[in-house]
Write a structure and sequence with these properties.
heterodimer, A: about 120 residues, 4-stranded antiparallel sheet, 11 strands, B: about 110 residues, mainly beta, 6-stranded mixed sheet, about 45% strand
Amino acid sequence: EVQLVESGGGLVQPGGSLRLSCAASGFTFSSYEMNWVRQAPGKGLEWVSYISSSGSTIYYADSVKGRFTISRDNAKNSLYLQMNSLRAEDTAVYYCARTVRGSSGFDYWGQGTLVTVSS
Amino acid sequence: QSALTQPASVSGSPGQSITISCTGTSSDVGGYNYVSWYQQHPGKAPKLMIYDVSNRPSGVSNRFSGSKSGNTASLTISGLQAEDEADYYCSSYTSSSVYVFGTGTKVTVL
């Protein structure tokens, strides 16, 4: 069974940093592209970042470019999101999501982890 | 990276068919056959319903179908059921090699 489990969320002050993790199981993690998607309270979905299966190709939404860094460790079946210079508008539930192999949809999602940026 | 445009709400009676539109530009929806649709119930993670415009993942009911014409994609739910009441989001790959989601549509079963 495919499972994605996020962790690392919490309360952080504006300007602070946080590192999210996503533990993957039930599939060959190193063969799949991965993404982070977030959802602010009561709002819609926002794509945040993409990383290729090898980690060699990375993309970011303009709203987080220069502040967030996506990475992965295929040996540990884990995906990460390092978030720096956090702002109030980064408050959201952060989901990791697997890309359909050879395609574009996100077929498996974690349960999400809440990040709250507030003083 | 402007969000794709969806109607805020769509409603229908049980057994009816409804269609949700998703309008973008030639740089996203119109330029690629990489449109997907997600269902999200309150407090839950999104669930993939359609990918690559019209493909259904294994386990998704055939009451859900997708299509595209120009810069507008559509999700049709036929034989509407109470369990279909949820928020629905479209998404598209873009010419900037990033993804963009739609504004979201709340489906109400009357």
